[in-house]
Design a protein that fits this description.
- By secondary structure, the chain is an all-alpha fold.
- It has a single domain, classed as Four Helix Bundle (Hemerythrin (Met), subunit A).
- 71% of the residues lie in helices and 0% in strands.
- It has eight helices and no strands.
- Helix 3 runs antiparallel to helix 6.
- The radius of gyration is 21 Å and the shape is globular.
């Protein structure tokens, strides 16, 4: 059998890749916070537009960055041997933290709309975002029941696992799409006058568009990491898994 690898298939170390993703995620959070602080007036809880500013920050932090971190837990080589329960708890806790931040982000936008008399749930962005959050909640509840509760039978876990993995990547890409549509919608609503029109590409538009591209890159790289065969946890019953366990055990 031919073992020659093309340059496109060269191995990329996971941990440096993960560190790069972490830095990129932190950059996305820092940029969305800077956008809301510098151009959108900062943050408050008074029902004004400054209350709305919590929405993009919490959504990017929870629904994209923290959710992406939760998705990558089982790609860490140290999770491939030993008990799985601590890693299950970490995976579920990160996902739960992402969900809590997401719910707070939704609360911020509904509070702003209600205080300003603005209708809720009229845009494609709002439909996509709420649908993503509902799917996320179902994903977490189903994962908790199947993988963390002790009475779930093995055959049910085996049946549900590929479904859980598929919807994990799907929810992440829906989250990215929701964030991008939200950034674009906010720019259209905010940049209207003759000196700051969106079509004139003022500094805020350049900054927010760049933020959107970085969010997209983050999401694509996380999905690529999830799809990479060499970074997947081997099946515990496979010969490859036994070889990995022997190597990790020294």
């Amino acid at each position: 059998r031919c073992h020659h690898r093309s340059p496109a298939m060269l191995d990329v170390p996971f941990l440096p890749f993960c560190a790069f993703l972490g830095a990129l995620g932190l950059l996305c959070v820092a940029m969305v916070g800077t956008w809301c602080q510098h151009w959108r007036g900062g943050f408050s809880l008074d029902g004004s537009s400054r209350t709305f500013n919590w929405h993009p920050v919490l959504m990017v932090t929870g629904l994209v960055v923290l959710y992406g971190a939760a998705a990558l837990v089982y790609r860490i080589p140290h999770t491939w041997s030993g008990p799985k329960l601590p890693w299950k708890v970490l995976h579920g806790s990160l996902a739960l933290g992402a969900f809590v931040l997401t719910v707070l982000g939704l609360a911020a936008v509904f509070c702003f709309h209600n205080s300003q008399g603005t209708p809720n749930m009229y845009s494609l962005h709002s439909w996509m975002g709420l649908g993503t959050v509902l799917l996320f909640s179902c994903q977490w509840a189903a994962g908790f029941g199947a993988f963390l509760l002790p009475w779930a039978p093995t055959w049910l876990r085996a049946l549900y696992k590929p479904i859980h993995v598929f919807f994990g990547s799907t929810i992440l890409m829906l989250s990215v799409a929701s964030c991008l549509s939200g950034i674009n919608e906010k720019l259209f609503f905010s940049l209207k006058n003759g000196t700051m029109a969106y079509k004139l590409l003022p500094a805020e538009a350049v900054f927010a568009n760049t933020l959107g591209l970085l969010i997209l890159i983050f999401g694509v790289l996380v999905v690529a990491a999830l799809a990479r065969p060499s970074w997947k946890r081997p099946d515990s019953n496979s010969p490859d898994s036994r070889q990995v366990q022997d190597a990790l055990g020294g």
